């Protein structure tokens, strides 16, 4: 019996260490990031030897409202070597046309109702000269230097590069909350890892991939309704040395402006996490077997629970260990305090104009819990996030040019 108790105790401790590590990670990364920045020397990029041909995919589902603004931002690119494939899935396109030979409007004969199928449809219409695929959402806007910056990264040998997603709107309460959450994730999953020379996580938008590499990815039924980027990044991580993060390749997206859309958005993301958790765990163990720290760390972070679940877990173990072990109870209190501190520090130092969103986090936490209890609604549904603000790239550049 003593042996069984010992084994159970060790497993109990191991589980807590694993879960608590996610709470401590942000403050550790903040320290390492500061040290890396202090001792690093940024070398000027070498002039590109080749002009890559980019194939831009814009997938729109049942709404063409934002297609003209994003196409307009693409037509204002400083880098001219691209084709844009606009997939208007189940859309009314009678009043939609683009007078640019590089912009190709594609209307599937039957509704696809899936982002992965829309991307595949665009791939089927690629020109032979297209080399690098770039995926955008229709509500995005693209900075004029986006493709020019990406071209430099591909000249350095990268096969997958994530662009820097910025906010079009941060005026309202929910917009600030959405934005500060994105800033925190950007620091943990991209900025800090880039400084440490590790692969970054990708979004489902603003990501660029070598065409031949992307064509090897096989999506299963889990990817048809949300979370396709989870599958994509796992497959890419296995087949490249590093996934790069181009901080100067800026694109803009619209942050959610109300509670309903925030909950729908988080609902999709939480469901995607649970759907692809086994794949994340497989990637983690694959990295361990290959003695590849970069891959193992990438997989470890894909297993990371949503932050609101981490906080709930922390309170659970604080309460449980109050009756079992005072040192463990205190350790969880410290881990939770360090997480809150790191969130505030990252929000204040990296958030710029969105830093006020830090103080709305209790409300953000409440809506995430609500969305968690509505997971069944996104099982076979898009739960598409609504957008309403039509903005052109010139409007953004007038107010806040990144360069």
Keywords:
403 residues; Spore Coat Polysaccharide Biosynthesis Protein SpsA, Chain A; alpha/beta; 12% strand; single chain; 51% helix
Count of domain modules? 1
CATH fold-level topology: Spore Coat Polysaccharide Biosynthesis Protein SpsA, Chain A
- Largest beta-sheet characterization: 8 strands, mixed
Secondary-structure element string: HEHEEHEEHEHEHHEHHHHHHH
CATH C-level name: Alpha Beta
C-alpha geometry:
globular
As a percent range, the share of helical residues equals 40-55%
User: Strand arrangement, largest sheet?
Assistant: 3-2-1-4-7-6-8-5
CATH superfamily (homologous) name: Spore Coat Polysaccharide Biosynthesis Protein SpsA, Chain A
Uncertain runs with pLDDT below 50, 5 residues or more? none
Number of discrete helical segments: 14
Distance between the amino and carboxyl termini: 67 Å
Strand element count: 8
Overall description:
The protein is an alpha/beta fold and 403 residues long. The chain has one domain (7-39, 52-381): Spore Coat Polysaccharide Biosynthesis Protein SpsA, Chain A (Alpha-Beta Complex). The chain has 14 helices and eight strands. β1, α2 and β2 (82-89) form a beta-alpha-beta unit. The N and C termini lie far apart (67 Å).
């Amino acid at each position: 019996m003593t042996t069984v108790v010992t084994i159970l105790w060790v497993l109990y401790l191991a589980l807590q260490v694993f879960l608590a590590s996610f709470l401590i990670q942000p403050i550790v990364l903040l320290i390492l990031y500061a040290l890396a920045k202090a001792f690093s020397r940024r070398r000027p990029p070498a002039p590109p030897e080749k002009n890559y041909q980019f194939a831009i995919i814009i997938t729109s589902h049942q709404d063409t409202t934002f297609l003209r603004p994003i196409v307009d931002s693409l037509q204002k690119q400083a880098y001219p070597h691209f084709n844009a494939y606009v997939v208007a899935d189940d859309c009314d396109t009678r009043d939609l046309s683009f007078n640019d030979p590089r912009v190709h409007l594609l209307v599937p004969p039957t509704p696809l109702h899936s982002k992965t199928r829309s991307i595949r449809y665009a791939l089927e219409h690629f020109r032979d000269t297209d080399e690098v695929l770039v995926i955008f959402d229709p509500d995005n806007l693209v900075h004029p230097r986006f493709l020019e910056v990406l071209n430099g990264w591909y000249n350095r040998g990268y096969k997958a590069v994530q662009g820097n997603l910025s906010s079009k709107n941060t005026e309202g309460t929910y917009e600030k909350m959405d934005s500060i959450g994105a800033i925190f994730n950007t620091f943990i999953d991209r900025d800090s890892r880039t400084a440490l020379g590790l692969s970054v996580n990708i979004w489902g938008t603003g990501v660029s991939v070598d065409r031949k590499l992307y064509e090897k990815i096989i999506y299963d039924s889990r990817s048809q309704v949300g979370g396709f980027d989870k599958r994509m990044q796992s497959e890419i991580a296995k087949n490249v040395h590093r996934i790069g993060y181009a901080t100067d390749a800026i694109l803009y997206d619209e942050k959610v402006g109300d509670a309903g859309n925030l909950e729908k958005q988080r609902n999709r993301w939480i469901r995607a996490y649970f759907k692809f958790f086994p794949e994340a765990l497989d990637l983690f163990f694959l990295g361990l077997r290959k003695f590849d720290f970069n891959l193992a760390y990438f997989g470890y972070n894909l297993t990371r629970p949503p932050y609101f679940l981490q906080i709930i877990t922390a309170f659970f173990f604080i309460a449980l260990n109050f009756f079992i072990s005072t040192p463990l109870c205190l350790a969880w209190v410290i881990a939770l305090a360090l997480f809150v501190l790191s969130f505030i520090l990252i929000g204040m130092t990296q958030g710029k104009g969105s830093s006020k969103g830090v103080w709305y986090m209790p409300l953000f936490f409440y809506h995430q819990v609500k969305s968690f209890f509505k997971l069944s609604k996104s099982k076979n549904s898009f739960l598409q996030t609504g957008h309403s603000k039509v903005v052109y790239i010139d409007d953004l550049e007038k107010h806040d040019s990144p360069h």
